[in-house]
Amino acid sequence: MDYNPDTFLADEKSARNTRTDCPLTISKVRGLPESPEYGDVADGIFQTRLPWLTMPATPKNKKKKLYLHTPMHKLLLSVLILLGVSVNAQQADTLLPLVPQPVNVKRMAGTFPLRDNMPVVAPPGVKSSDAVLFIAFVESFYGIHLKLVNKHNGAGAIRISYDLEEDKTKPADYYELKVSATEIKITGKGSGVFYGLQTLIQLIPAGIVNEYNIPCVSISDYPRFAWRGMHLDVSRHFFKKEEVKKYIDFLAMYKLNVFHWHLTDDQGWRIEIKSRPKLTEKAAWRSGTLIGHYTASPQKYDTTRYGGFYTQDEVREIIAYAQQRHITVVPEIELPGHSLATLSAYPELGCTPGPFEAAKTWGVFNDVLCPKEETFKFLEDVFKEVCALFPGQYIHIGGDECPKDRWKESALCQEIKKRENLKDEHELQSWFIRRVEKIVAANNKQIIGWDEILEGGLAPGAAVMSWRGDEGGIAAAREKHNVVMSPTSNFYFDYYQSESHEEPLAIGGYLPLEKVYGYNPLPAALKPEEQQYIMGVQANLWTEYIGDFRKVEYMALPRMAALAEVAWSQQQARNYERFVARLTTHLLIHDRMGTNYSKAIFYIEPQILPPQPGKPGVRLLLNTRSKGAIIRYSVTDVFNENSPPLEDTLNIMRPVSLSAAAYEGQMRRSPIYRQSFQMTYSTGKPVTLATPPDAKYNNGGGFTLVNGVVGRLPWNGAEWLGYKDNNLEAVIDLGKTSSFNRVRVDVLKDEGSWIYQPKSIEVLTSNDGITFTSVKKIGSEEIQKYVRMVMVNTGMNFGRYVKVIVETAGTIPAGKPGEGNPAWLFVDEIFIE
Fold first, then answer.
1. What's the angle, vertex CA 564, arms to CA 560 and CA 566, rounded to 5?
2. Which of 93, 233, 265, 828 is catalytic?
3. 3-state helix/strand/coil string of 366-419
4. H-run or E-run covering 546
5. CA dihedral 636, 637, 638, 643 (to 10 degrees)
6. pLDDT tens sequence across 762-808
7. Is residue 185 exposed (0-12), middle (13-18) or buried (19+ Cβ within 10 Å)?
8. If DSSP codes are grouped into helix, strand and coil, which group holds residue 174?
9. In this predicted model, what pLDDT tens digit does every residue of 161-173 receive, in sequence order?
10. Helix (H, G, I), strand (E, B), or coil: what is residue 178?
11. What average pLDDT does the chain have?
12. Is 338 a residue of the active site?
């Protein structure tokens, strides 16, 4: 999918009961009750975490230790003691590093010692596979060898039971986990036992310890939603079979049960279709790839042949691997748009003769599948093989971002419109999707597609994946169609996850961990009887800017953990601060696994504030979620562990380049935060806006225009004010009559994202803030001379108040991405000099 500000939000705000075949089968499902490329991040700074802090042994058991991971936990423990709360009480359950948070957790006194050669008692046959996977994980990452047995009469065992399988009073995939000082018992129904074992893994101390003592607990748990999905795009960049399996392992760890496998797009076809061999001979390969960001001008490309595909045997192997982990694989065959790779192999399926080639860059392309009979025969061949491979209920058919240009120009398409009494090309797409649904239904499957399939009328039996916000999901649920909520605002994991300049290149946008965690999949706009059609949630990982699996890990984790809690845990039990406290210790598991997860929760978080009354410049406040860390800073070329600590807000009153980082002792725990500040007459001054920016792009209000910081590229939304339906009109109070001779306005141009340079910029002055006189206005011809920072030379002028009017470009012209829609205006800084 491509990206534009309308969807590219940057605002802050039952399975079959076998162990080897568990396709997701859902009809009406309701939510249950309540490396160098990565800069400092991949250079090993976080790869080895500090050992857990330890408390003295207790008199009752001199070997017993209470392990705490970070100063945050030590502080939390101190608070609990001061409040008179026992650390073994229910209120302290957040100290257990469990993600997602179970429905019911009771922590009890004592621990269970996990030791070599301990028996794991499980039923024989296929049901033992859950135990086999558990044993393999513990041996691989903890070095503890466990024995799988069918019977064991003594104590000191881990016992697995499926006794709840037929219990109709328990929710789907329910499990109970009881840890006493003498044994561990897990029982469940459906996938419950497997999920209970994932919880047990998270209870094993993952830090540097001498003994693996599991805390005694009593847990009963079940998922909130039936669809708990995670997507991976393998078309833009291809990932090996073993890497896909590792990705599935991450899903299993977090009790996610749907793997959405995006197999085809403009840039490559990734699945073998025996009846259509050209798809892997030609469509699976492109002649080069974009270097750098899409917004770069000029764009650059390499000339390396790139691609790959999965054979049908490899597909079966990956499906079986997922099924063992109670995960359904949902394939996506993108149509009718995003089909350049398909057309490169079979140009006769297009509305024009071609030739076509798989795309070397990203975006939306006008050449799409033409609704001719040859196309539907091709799709019959493809879906016959795809449906035979994948045992799940759903086949994803895309349906998003299909430009209608070629259809409007096609005599065939116009003939179909007339014959079928279709009023426009949107209805023609709906007609196309209904034809595809019949093909898929003939193979005993159902279609699911992105919310554009709603346009022109939704095909009967189709499910909707709502990505452009909640609106598509709400509309589909009201029409009694099953829905998966997957909004860009909360679940696009290719967005930046921090505002650190050390972040690896991403497509743009800003999606911090708390934004993922804060989503509620059940819209208040839906009535309870309509909410039953919300099957669940899914996050998506598009890979335009993700060329290797280390970066997949970095972009997906730990945001996948936050997604898991949204999908699994009860809404009323969720609390972001407690989640972070659990997550901080939980991430030690990923340290053991060698996962290249993002450490954004340890990053420096800057907050630029207006100056104190009567003071010049701006104030800078630096925080980090890693409690107890010392933030050190420097405004010189020298920055290290001996730089002074920042103990209060820092006043910035002159142009500086600042460096800062979080330290524990002499060890740096965060990437270095670097920020340059510019100072002009307008910096830090009061700003009044005539009209507010769009709610999605209003971070900091008018102060964003005068905070002394120039927004970065690629843009992530957080440092810009965005306007679509109104002009920007800002009045800056300089505090006293001042002279100036130029105004610089920082504007963004990214036509691929529907963001255009302004039509005009006008500067006006006033001494009373009421009556303004225009001193200079420049039009688009002058503005287009500048790449970004537009210079308005006013000549010598005087005034206390300076008004700057920046006019939007209006409607996006024909032939451009987003044509016919209002162009976006993004403005960052206004410098008066």
1. 115
2. 265
3. CCCECCCHHHHHHHHHHHHHHHHHCCCCEEEEECCCCCCHHHHHCHHHHHHHHH
4. none
5. 30
6. 999 999 999 999 999 999 999 999 988 999 999 999 999 999 999 99
7. middle
8. coil
9. 999 988 999 999 9
10. strand
11. 88
12. yes
Examine the residue annotation and report whether 265 is marked as an active-site residue of this protein: yes
The number of beta carbons lying within 10 Å of the beta carbon of residue 536 is 27
The series of mean pLDDT values per 10 residues for the chain, 833 residues long, is 45 30 34 33 25 27 32 38 33 73 96 97 89 98 96 94 92 98 97 98 92 97 98 98 98 98 98 98 98 88 98 98 98 98 98 96 96 98 98 97 96 97 95 96 97 88 95 96 97 91 88 96 97 98 98 98 98 92 91 93 88 91 77 93 91 94 80 91 96 90 95 76 94 96 95 92 96 96 93 95 97 89 95 97
The SS3 of residue 811 is: strand
401 counts as catalytic: yes
Cα separation, 465 vs 451, whole angstroms: 6
Dump strand ranges (E) for 673-727. 673-677, 687-689, 721-723
CA-to-CA distance for 763 and 784, rounded, in angstroms?
18
Compute the distance between CA of residue 346 and CA of residue 256 in angstroms, rounded to an integer: 37
CA proximity to 117, closest of 105, 135, 99, 131: 135
Instruction: Extract the tokens encoding 637.
Output: 């070329």
Query: What count of residues does the chain have?
Result: 833
As given in the structure block, the two tokens for residue 285 are 């390969």
Question: 715 is written with which tokens?
Answer: 């843009």
What is the SS3 assignment for 763? strand
Sort strands 268-269 and 264-265 into parallel, antiparallel or unpaired: antiparallel
What ranges in 469-538 are assigned the alpha helix state H? 471-478, 488-491, 513-517, 528-531
Catalytic residue among 401, 425, 750, 807: 401
Backbone φ, ψ for residue 415 (5° rounding): -65, -40
Of 237, 260, 293, 338, which is the active-site residue? 338
Distances (CA, A) of 86 to 74, 225, 334, 582, 707: 14, 33, 55, 18, 47
Single-letter residue type at 89: A
Which two structure tokens, joined as six digits, stand for 13? 């705000």
C-alpha–C-alpha distance, residues 568 and 103, integer Å: 9
CA distance 157 to 595: 30
Q: Nearest CA to 197 among 123, 120, 125, 257?
A: 120
Give the span between the Cα atoms of 483 and 485, in whole angstroms: 6
CA 414 to chain centre: 40
The CA dihedral of 423, 425, 430, 432, to the nearest 10 degrees, is: 120
Checking DSSP bridges between strand 656-664 and strand 667-668, what pairing results, if any? Answer: antiparallel
Q: Residue 832 belongs to what H/E stretch? A: strand 825-832
